[in-house]
Known about the structure:
Elements: E1 3-7, E2 10-14, H1 19-32, E3 35-38, H2 49-61, E4 69-75, H3 81-87, E5 93-96, H4 114-127, E6 131-133, H5 144-147, H6 149-158, E7 164-166, H7 172-177, E8 184-188, H8 198-202, H9 218-229, E9 235-237, H10 246-249, H11 264-274, H12 281-293, E10 301-310, E11 326-334
Parallel strand pairs: 2-3, 3-4, 4-5, 5-6, 6-7, 7-8, 8-9
Antiparallel strand pairs: 1-10, 10-11
Amino acid sequence: MKTHxxxxxxxxxxxxxxxxMLENVAPLSAYSFSGGLVMPNLVPPVDSLExxxxxxxxxxxxxxxxFFEPYMTLFYKNYDRKxxxxxxxxxxxxxxxxxxxxxxxxxxxxxxxxxxxxxxxEAMSDLxxxxxxxxxxxxxxxxxEAEFMSVYELLAKNFPNLKIIMEHITTKAAVDxxxxxxxxxxxxxxxxxxxxxxxxxxxxxxxxNFCKPIAKxxxxxxxxxxxxxxxxxxxxxxxxSAPHSxxxxxxxxxxxxxxxxxxxxxxxxxxxxxYNKLENLQAFVSDNAQNIYGICPEFKEVxxxxxxxxxxxxxxGVVPMYSDKIINWAIQSIE
Length: 335
Ligand SMILES: NC(=O)N[C@@H](CC(=O)O)C(=O)O
Ligand SMILES: [Zn+2]
Ligand SMILES: [Zn+2]
């Protein structure tokens, strides 16, 4: 049987939620990943040292028997230097959301006035805290990410020593930015390596393929594949696994977010094998992130095997992408 081994897989964009949902999904990530960058968009957002520490403890309590590092993030506000100096050692990044643009982002940034942000972003540069960004404007839905490129350029030029991570990129426009500014990086999800808008609304409407940013055009998918399959050193895997209850997904007013954490590595193997690029998957799912963030995850070895795997209908009521469908790779063992 064909197998493929991955060492210390990392998921550098992960929603673990809170409460019962946290208890349900955190063990699924902890099973197959060494660590993940945990998003701060709880209600209310994680925006203080107290709430950050308490959230990390609640995460750790759900995974008593697994080695899994929750790399914590703080919800971006125009924090002052003193506050940032005190919190720097407790966080891996700060996550910026434009106000109202995605799930639980109401308290985000409503104006990208560089002068208003200068103190915070200069302090982050000096302290070596990366800035992760959900990069969408409030324009027409298919153009939101491309329109946001001017904001990335403004940030990259004004803060040349700030590491800026374009989160969950979905367009050729974003891919083209990677080689233009030395301080711009990106995460790519597994679903954006598989889906276009057709898979969301091209036939029957598919709520479990609906997320922000929405999947785009075939040429965008090709651009994402080109950098992911080569494991371009400035891109890394971030699932953006974003669980919502079945009720919130299968309803009028479907919540944005695709739940992929438990099937992400299997799907990545399938994609990379299909394009004969399995040898680059290790860099995409771990090595690049280690270099970009300067992190050293705990040892974990995940052996995957090529065999039909029926994706569960749901995980305690949370429906994954490709629910009840057969995919071609499965997890064989983990050490
Ligand atoms: N990606 C999504 O569609 N949803 C995410 C938020 C986000 O990452 O934008 C969520 O928290 O549900
Ligand atoms: Zn986002
Ligand atoms: Zn997200």
